[in-house]
Amino acid sequence: MTPQERIAELTDRLNYYTHQYYQNSISEVDDFTFDQLLAELADLETQYPEFRQPESPTARVGGTISKEFATVYHRFPMLSLGNTYSEEDLIEFDKRVQKGLNNQPYEYICELKFDGVALSMTYENGLLVQGATRGDGVRGDDITNNVRTIRTVPLRVVGEGRGASSAERGEVGTEVGGQSGSQITIAFADHTPQVPTPLPPALFEVRGEGFLPLAEFNRINKEREDIGEPLLANPRNAASGTFKQQDSGAVAKRRLDCYVYSFLSDQDIFQTHEESLIAMKQWGFNVSPTWQKCTNIQEVMQYINQWEEKRFTLPLGTDGIVIKVNRYDQQRELGYTAKSPRWAISFKYKALAASTVLTGIRYQVGRTGSVTPVALLTPVLLAGTTVKRASLHNANEIERLGVRLYDTVFVEKGGEIIPKITGVDLNRRTDQSQPIVYPTTCPACGTPLIRKEGEANHYCPNERGCPPQRQTRFEHFIQRRAMNIESLGEGKIEMLIDRGLVETPADLYSLTSEQLLGIEKVFLDEETGKKRIVSFREKTVENILTAIERSKAQPFQNVLFALGIRYVGNTTAEKLVDYFGSMDAIMKASQEELLAVPDTGPRIAESVVTWFADEYNRAFVEQLRAAGLQFAGEKKVVEQEGDALAGKTFLYTGTFANFSREELENRIEANGGRLLSGISKKLNYLIVGENAGPSKIDKAQKLNVQMIGEDEFLAMLEV
Ligand SMILES: NC(=O)c1ccc[n+]([C@@H]2O[C@H](COP(=O)([O-])OP(=O)(O)OC[C@H]3O[C@@H](n4cnc5c(N)ncnc54)[C@H](O)[C@@H]3O)[C@@H](O)[C@H]2O)c1
Ligand SMILES: [Zn+2]
């Protein structure tokens, strides 16, 4: 391949990855590979500037704007950061800074590089007036409504100091619990203000990283697994996808967070970046306490080393550190390239890897029957924890890696809690290695596995008889958000099933204390080899039976969720109850009727109809009814106000001064109108609010749908 061809190829490939990454929140390659290809392209372009493509990714900020949101122009460009993976590069950077500043003294502020989505937030007279994405650096998407859902982003900034927290005072002992099981104590640097904190100016902007906390990411995935939804790939892409959603109600359900790391204003109220970090914290912004001032590059190196492993204890994913020249006048002196500031750089950690032997594979069967292979490894130390397992996702992944049993494999720890296998050390493959034969039958019950068109996972179709599926169906049923009988956890269900006391969760309601008293089982912890005895003593039995009895009062919405219908999570259950009001109405509903429920698509509708069509499931439901569970809820009654909108269909976009989304929907229905879920020829009116989505407006124009404002809508109601 000639350099010219390689340049063209790299440009295309990198632009494609960039599009996938920013537009579709998908990483087709890992960041290290991406950065290497980008560096290769930059090198080639320096050598052969004549072949440089006009759309080269080397001089542009990666993202773009999308049609779903209104476009905003940034007051100050939102740039990228130069990045490096080596100490040598960092020393080079330091030399450039030194030279650029003509050997004046300077200091750095080091921060963690948070792995999420860059956000810009503008405040006017203390109020949050705009939240935007970085976009192409010049223009971004107006996602104000989504940014407002972040609880740690103040909607209003009052200039009073909030007083320093213990972390800011540099006290040791703040606990950060990102990793399951381990609590590490971290000492943060001293962030005591050196100068009095000024009041915030009338107009200013803060920038930060919007992220999905790891705990939240895991919670969401656990829920998705429970109802049979595909899992989110990683916290960064999940955060990016969430910020792009239109429905800020759905965004609010994922508890996003934001660490703020930069301040911009026309007024010079700070001399240094450090002052701004301290002040933003005092004004009520969420500033991570992990930053530190370093007086030379050696101290920067120490900071880097110090955080290499410790960063895994933080509540979010981080992929490196960011080094910034502290003084603003010096930042100005150093200036910018087209893509990034010359006064800052990021140092990215190479993913922490270790090599170990794959000793076996355990195939786990989930509630909805999906089979997931888990790699069993010879224990190895990685980022401060002993790793014995790694995720392998599915059969495709095993094939992609070409991994065999007893191979030496590389395991890496990225942002996720469970490490993953990233490759095979072929040099160390021995005669002992054996191909992995993916099971064709369920490892738990022997039923032949099936694989649905287009799905990566294999399933065990024996929903009823398969022990782990049965077990997890109970776990689903007793969880707090369902029937709330959590006192049955810790192996107790297994014991009841083993004894033949229960077959389905409905059988719980006929348990008696005579049946339970005295049951005992010894559990052996595989990892520690410790024994644990669970026995049903008088007190335990009493607690369990009381909890079962009490669960009969759980609202209908919880009961519907507890049934364990695929794709029917908590939110969907709530919507179904709002719409139909009772179990009988839902059981009778046709696919079409179900589709009329807000946010219910064909996948859910089909799943509900199929589930209730099954006699076994219906018998289960009847048993629950006989036990006295709540089978009806509050149907959301829309009190009719009139019929001014009768026969007319509506859809809305944007936000409104007089109504919330819900109020607007209620008013439409209360006046005889009907809400549609998308723009089609059937739509009569599109109500356009503030920050309306341009793509909806485009489509409405094309289909000649009448667009009205909030006032016109109100006027229609008056008739
Ligand atoms: N895997 C892929 O397919 C793929 C595709 C495109 C880009 N990428 C990744 O994205 C990177 C390019 O993205 P980029 O241009 O956003 O650069 P970047 O992510 O390397 O650096 C800039 C960004 O860092 C973030 N940041 C986090 N903590 C910060 C802090 N304390 N201070 C300042 N900024 C902080 C900000 O969001 C800022 O916009 C590449 O290096 C690559 O790793 C990956
Ligand atoms: Zn099975």
From TrEMBL:
Its cofactor is Mg(2+); Mn(2+). Zn(2+) binds at residues 442, 445, 460, 466. GO terms for molecular function: DNA ligase (NAD+) activity; metal ion binding. It catalyses: NAD(+) + (deoxyribonucleotide)n-3'-hydroxyl + 5'-phospho-(deoxyribonucleotide)m = (deoxyribonucleotide)n+m + AMP + beta-nicotinamide D-nucleotide. Gene3D superfamilies: 5' to 3' exonuclease, C-terminal subdomain, 6.20.10.30, BRCT domain, DNA ligase/mRNA capping enzyme, Helix hairpin bin, Nucleic acid-binding proteins. InterPro entries: BRCT_dom, BRCT_dom_sf, DisA/LigA_HHH, DNA_ligase, DNA_ligase_AS, DNA_ligase_CS, DNAligase_adenylation, DNAligase_N. Residues 640-719 form the BRCT domain. GO terms for biological process: DNA repair; DNA replication. Its EC number is 6.5.1.2. The keyword Manganese applies. The active site is at 113 (n6-amp-lysine intermediate). PROSITE patterns: BRCT, DNA_LIGASE_N1, DNA_LIGASE_N2. The keyword Transcription regulation does not apply. GO terms for cellular component: cytosol. It comes from the Bacteria. Keywords: DNA damage, DNA repair, DNA replication, Ligase, Magnesium, Manganese, Metal-binding, NAD, Zinc. NAD(+) binds at residues 31-35, 80-81, 111, 134, 209, 324, 348. It is an enzyme of class 6 (ligase). DNA ligase that catalyzes the formation of phosphodiester linkages between 5'-phosphoryl and 3'-hydroxyl groups in double-stranded DNA using NAD as a coenzyme and as the energy source for the reaction. It is essential for DNA replication and repair of damaged DNA. NCBIfam families: dnlj, PRK07956.1. Belongs to the NAD-dependent DNA ligase family. LigA subfamily. PANTHER family: CHROMOSOME TRANSMISSION FIDELITY FACTOR 18 (PTHR23389), DNA LIGASE (PTHR23389:SF9). This is DNA ligase. It comes from Spirosoma foliorum.
